[in-house]
Amino acid sequence: MRILVVGAGVAGTATAYFLARDGHAVDVLDRGEAPASEGSYANAGLIHASLAEPWNSPAAVVELLGSLARRDGTLLLNARQLPQLLGWGLRFLYHGLPGPRRANTRLNARLAVYSQRVLGELRGETGIQYDHSAAGLLKLFQSHKRLQAVRATSRMLEEFGVHHHVLTVDELVEREPLLEPTRGELAGAIHYPGDESGCPHLFARELAHRAEALGACFHHGVGVRRLRMQGKRLDRVITDQGDFEADTLIIAAGPEAADLGRGIGLRLPIRPVKGYSTTLPLGPDVPAPSVPLSDDGRKLVINRLGNRLRIAGTAEFAGLDRGITEMRVEQLRRRACETMPALAACLPGREEEPWACLRPMTADGPPILGETPIPNVYLNAGSGHLGWTMAAGSARLVADLVAGRTPEIPVEGFSMRRYRL
Ligand SMILES: Cc1cc2nc3c(=O)[nH]c(=O)nc-3n(C[C@H](O)[C@H](O)[C@H](O)COP(=O)(O)OP(=O)(O)OC[C@H]3O[C@@H](n4cnc5c(N)ncnc54)[C@H](O)[C@@H]3O)c2cc1C
């Protein structure tokens, strides 16, 4: 089969690899200059089934609404975005109720755990190197109440093989001495030994080479303008470099999946949620935690990726704006120094790479995978804060559906059919 994939982020690249491995003729179109140039370039790097909960918790919603008048919170809602967020936002609120939230957490967890297994198999079969680490994750809490709440969710995730251990502050500091200066503000931590981390950009670049070796062709610098139907089927993809035809199309265009889908009548409740990171080269004077740290109160991650240190966080409803605002990067740096004070001595004047990009977030939480009402169009989009975690598994699942194979995990909860209810 001739298959076109729009988008060469982690989702599109992994999908292209599995499709090429199945023997299809695969072309990937992406406006970037290389795989993973946008949302998958410099995220926090966590493969974290432990953080499977969607982001629509009541506390997050309250913080978001409170942020309408501020410019400096970890969660920000730009008032100008409210009209675009209206329908999506109501769904987001509804799915924040305990029942739907629990169900969606379970869906995410099952896919995340499956994806981690597929990722391991991919490493085995391709030998790709992407600064992979299996050190787990330490989630730090300033509040006992939050620790207990997250612990309750963590207990639920045990069913999927996501294990956790609660650490007292003494145990935490013994494990990560860099946290000694902040011990007074900490309530404890949860260690998730099964979580992993790695660089999504290296992963996509390496996997794209493996896909090319199997015959896939990556067309970079190609902007897709619109999709054209003929009758009930997709006919062609119209780009700024001419038209492309194929038997089947996979939309893996991150937040832009919603716009592309709309053009052919697919209403996808995906909205962009902006985040920032900054990355610095590790040197003898740069302190790096031995286990990735996720600070619950400050909503940021400090993670060592090979010979680099990445600080990532913040969530902002700012439309498709991917611009870097220095004030936001500075907030990230300042908060990282609060989490790990040893950073304060080395950050000023240090060479670093600030980055901002968009999480493609569905209103309910799980991504949208697989078939659409258009028989030759499939989706791999909307994985939100878990896009790197779920990339390998989602891609394999979509390739299975294209091939007519039964995927290894149930797909109903990820199908766009769920939005007709
Ligand atoms: C600050 C931050 C930290 C994060 N941390 C983590 C983490 O630790 N763990 C985790 O699992 N996830 C994390 N995420 C989320 C994760 O990065 C995303 O979910 C994931 O990268 C999405 O991948 P994707 O392939 O779906 O989309 P993208 O990577 O955005 O890829 C979409 C591609 O489509 C292309 N495209 C779009 N429109 C068009 C068009 N019209 N024509 C041509 N090409 C087009 C773009 O160029 C892009 O390359 C984080 C995100 C952010 C912002």
The helix content is 25-40%
Largest sheet: 9 strands, mixed
Tell me the radius of gyration. 21 Å
What ligand molecules are bound, each kind once?
A: flavin-adenine dinucleotide
Just name the CATH architecture.
3-Layer(bba) Sandwich
Oligomer: single chain
Which blocks of ≥5 consecutive residues have pLDDT under 50?
none
CATH class: Alpha Beta
The CATH topology is FAD/NAD(P)-binding domain
Query: What's the number of structural domains?
Result: 1
Strand residue percentage: 25-35%
What spatial form do the alpha-carbon principal axes imply? globular
> Which structural class matches the secondary elements?
alpha/beta
Order of helices and strands: EHEEHEHHEHEHEEHEEEEEHEEEEHEEEH
Question: What is the mean pLDDT?
Answer: 95
End-to-end Cα distance:
32 Å
Number of helices, where a helix is a run of at least 4 consecutive DSSP H or I residues: 10
Count the strands?
A: 20
Question: Would you identify the CATH H-level superfamily?
Answer: FAD/NAD(P)-binding domain
What does this protein look like?
By secondary structure, the chain is an alpha/beta fold. The protein has a single domain, classed as 3-Layer(bba) Sandwich (FAD/NAD(P)-binding domain), CATH 3.50.50.60. Helix content is 32%, strand content 25%. The protein is built from ten helices and 20 strands. It has helices at residues 10-21, 58-66, 82-94, 98-126, 144-157, 169-175, 200-213, 257-262, 326-339, 387-403; strands spanning 2-6, 25-30, 46-47, 75-77, 137-141, 165-167, 188-192, 196-197, 217-220, 224-230, 233-239, 242-245, 248-251, 270-281, 293-295, 300-305, 308-317, 353-362, 368-371, 377-381. The strands form four sheets. Strands 4, 5, 6, 7, 14, 15, 16, 17 and 18 form a nine-stranded mixed sheet that branches. It has a six-stranded mixed sheet with strand order 9-2-1-13-20-19. A three-stranded antiparallel sheet has the order 10-11-12, with no helix packed on it. Strand 1, helix 1 (10-21) and strand 2 (25-30) form a beta-alpha-beta unit. Helix 1 (10-21) packs parallel to helix 10. The two termini are 32 Å apart. The model has no long low-confidence stretch (mean pLDDT 95). The structure holds flavin-adenine dinucleotide (FAD). Residues 6-12, 29-32, 36-40, 43-46, 48, 200, 223-224, 252-254, 256, 275-277, 312, 357, 359-360, 381, 383-389 line the site of flavin-adenine dinucleotide.
